[in-house]
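Quick one, tokens below. Sequence please?
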């Protein structure tokens, strides 16, 4: 999992404002689902390179694009929630994420959701679901080489054009699968980069929420004394008869 089970984003204290808790839940869930689909995508891309070309890879083809677009959908939700979340939207990491990825996420979602848009008229072919490129360097230690793949989707993609394996490159890398680019109608996004930025922003949010909670918790004793005084005053009847009220066990969160 992306977050530990005892993370304050998972087990939220009631002392936090209810509106903030709603946004925090949405931010946490959209980040975790994005990361879930990213892990699934990495596994599928690696498996694609291992499958023999003599067998049908139709299911794996659909799987790759399903995971890639699910990732985009969920990271887009994460992006929009950061833009609206009270307090969180003002954090430097959140503001940076929103600004950095606004254009690319907007363009790639528009290209996929609105295939009849004016920008599509300049395209020779309507990919709709687009193409995905990635570099596979898992065998870099064996032969010091990596392979770049390109996989296309859409009605124009027949068996002979679904995948293009670009020339082997003499480039070494510390990652197994990287430079994963999803593109359609001129719009594109590099998936592993946006996921890395999302994780960084999420960890900063986790730190901020924890600091905010501890600050509120430290102020509770002062608030509790005042609340006790007011409750005791309200316990007096119209006949000015004192009613004994025990408020020592009233929960504070």
């Amino acid at each position: 999992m992306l977050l530990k089970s005892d993370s304050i984003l998972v087990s939220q204290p009631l002392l936090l404002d209810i509106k903030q808790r709603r946004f925090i839940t949405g931010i946490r869930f959209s980040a975790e689902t994005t990361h879930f689909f990213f892990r699934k995508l990495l596994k599928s891309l690696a498996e694609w390179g291992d499958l023999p070309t003599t067998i049908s890879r139709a299911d794996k083809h659909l799987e790759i694009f399903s995971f890639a677009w699910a990732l985009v959908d969920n990271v887009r939700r994460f992006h929009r929630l950061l833009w609206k979340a009270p307090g969180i939207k003002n954090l430097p990491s959140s503001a940076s994420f929103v600004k950095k990825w606004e254009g690319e996420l907007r363009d790639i979602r528009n290209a996929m959701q609105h295939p009849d848009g004016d920008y599509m008229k300049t395209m020779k072919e309507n990919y709709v679901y687009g193409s995905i490129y990635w570099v596979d360097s898992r065998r870099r230690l064996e032969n010091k080489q990596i392979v770049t793949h390109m996989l296309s989707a859409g009605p124009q993609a027949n068996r002979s054009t679904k995948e293009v394996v670009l020339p082997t490159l003499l480039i070494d890398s510390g990652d197994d699968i990287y430079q994963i680019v999803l593109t359609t109608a001129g719009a594109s996004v590099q998936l592993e980069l946006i996921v890395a930025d999302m994780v960084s922003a999420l960890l900063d949010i986790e730190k901020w929420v924890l600091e905010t909670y501890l600050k509120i918790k430290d102020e509770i004793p002062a608030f509790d004394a005042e609340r006790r005084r007011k409750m005791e005053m309200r316990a007096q009847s119209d006949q000015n008869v004192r009613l004994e009220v025990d408020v020592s066990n009233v929960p504070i969160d």
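Residues 156-162, 164-171, 237-247 have pLDDT under 50 and may be disordered. The chain has five helices and five strands.
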